[in-house]
Amino acid sequence: MRRAIDRLARRLPEPLEDLAWISYNYLWSWTPGGSELFRSIDAYRFMVAGENPVRFLLNLPERDLLRAATDRDLLDQLQRVAQVIDADLQRPTQRVLSNGPVAFFCAEFGVHQSLPVYSGGLGVLAGDLLKEMSDQALDVVAVGLLYRRGYLHQRMSLEGWQHEYWLEANTDLLPAVRVRGADGLPLRVTVPVWDGELAAHVWRVDVGRTPLYLLDAELAENNPLERWVTARLYEGSPEIRLAQYALLGIGGVRALDAMGISPALFHLNEGHPALAPLEIASRTSSELAGDRLGLEKLLDIGRDRFVFTTHTPVPAGNETYDPDVFFSVLGRSVDQMGLSRDELSSASRVDAAATTEPLGLSPLAIRSARSTNAVSKRHGEVARTMWSPLFPTVKLDDVPITHVTNAVHLPTWMAPDMRDLLTKFFGADWELHANDPGLWSHVDEIPDVELWRARCDLRLQLVEMLRSRIVVDRLARGEDVALAESAFSAFDPTHLTIGFARRLATYKRLDLLFHDVERLHGIIDHDQGVQIILAGKAHPLDYEAKSVAKNVFVVKRGLETTNRVVFLEDYDLRVAPQLVAGCDVWLNLPRPPFEASGTSGMKSALNGGLNLSVLDGWWCEGYNGRNGWAIDGSTVDDPEAQDERDATALYELLESEVKPLFYSRDANGVPALWLARVRESLRSLGPQFSSARMVNDYVNQVYRPSH
Ligand SMILES: *Cc1c(COP(=O)(O)O)cnc(C)c1O
Question: Rounded distance, CA 696 to CA 544, Å?
Answer without folding.
Answer: 39
